[in-house]
Amino acid sequence: MFNMSLSISKLGFLFALTILVQSCGESSNDTFHENPSSFPQTSRYYNSGLDPEVVKSFEELETLMIAASPDGTLAGFKMPTDTEYEKIPADPKNPITMEKIELGKLIFHETGITAGISNMKNTWSCASCHHAKAGFKAGISQGIGEGGQGFGNAGEERTVIPGMEGIADVQPIATPTVLNTAYQEVMLWNGQFGNQLNGIINSNINDDILSTESTPKTANKFGLSGLETQVIAGFGVHRLDVSETSILRSNSSYIELFNLAFPDGYDDLLVATSKAIAAYERSILANNSPFQMWLQGQNVSMSYDEIEGAKVFFGKARCSNCHTGPALSSPLGASEDEMFMSVGFGDLDYNNDIIGSIGESVRLGRGGFTQDASDNYKFKIPTLYNLKDTSVFGHGASFRTIREVVEYKLVGTPQVDNPNLDRRFIPIELTTKEKEELILFLEGALYDNALFRYSTEYVPSKLCPLNNDALSKLDLGCDN
User: Fold this and answer.
1) How many domains does the chain contain in total?
2) Is residue 265 part of a domain?
3) pLDDT value, residue 6
4) pTM
């Protein structure tokens, strides 16, 4: 009797174990299907194991994306991988190479090239205002170069040193991200940097406006794209050193790296340095985000809710009417109307949170540069990747969360009214579920969680990279 009971127990156990084994591999959210061969062999989802409902949702998303794509294909939204340099948009005068990227990355984070006008020499870098931890923004509303101290976890604790308020290099507008900037021809919120051969955006602007003497815009005389031009101008604006005393001329590591990056030599250290930094900046792509991984063929990179949110983005919410192309900013070869628009965002003083003051030309955005009233209050459309890395949204940092921006766009009422509000800025009605799915797509599917791969913990000067002031070194964990 005892043995019979034991046998029955064993049979029950084996039956339960069989059921458990059969259920192994099934997704908790029903992503996979029992019959993975139920889709046509021509489908990318053939033999994928995906649930039919998921495949249906993917196919609906593909239809919406193809209709919204700049070139009528899904590839119109796809970024190259980290090593596909030939597929990254580049200035014709500055081909991208691995050697340029490596040199540019080091100089970008190098605190040993700063000169300045104070006793704070060699304490900041390009990365002070564009670092990976804040999605290559500054982590605060206004980027601070010279005269700044501290970092915190993601740049949020950087402040102006007391007594240096009139000396510090503080920007009058929120720092744009460097992420995905390869996909835009001109730089800054107003697009004032960029004069590329066969360029589109600034091609009809008179030289006296485009390259105004005694201003940073004289950098446009080099005839380069926006990224290269911005770096040239930035060396002066942000008090970086390429003079005869620059570490770039004396450090043996930099000398060797320049020889590798420019094997045919170069005539101007400033231009060569700018080309290297721009090549590095072009390589900074959010191509490891779930949405991009899906575009690269990984069927299970996005959750079902993120897929549904993507459908809202490209469909009912009409987000892709303005945010398109691989960076979800503007398409390659964009016109001005496709790159700049006014949606009534406030300036830095909208939230009474500002260091210094804002000039009228800054408030006017594109119009402050072009001097064309029809461009007033228009600003460049930013990329939508890695928004979760920061609490700074809009050219005036007038929003703190992704949700705030989404709700603002859905309501369609400007923070600051103006006569050039874009015709696409209108109220949009979504259900609560659709809004939540849209936010999930923006926060999750467009988030590359490995941007640290574009950083460095070492620079040839052996100073603390990114920031080298005493407080920052503590925050960043630098030993020297």
Assistant:
1) 1
2) yes
3) 39
4) 0.91
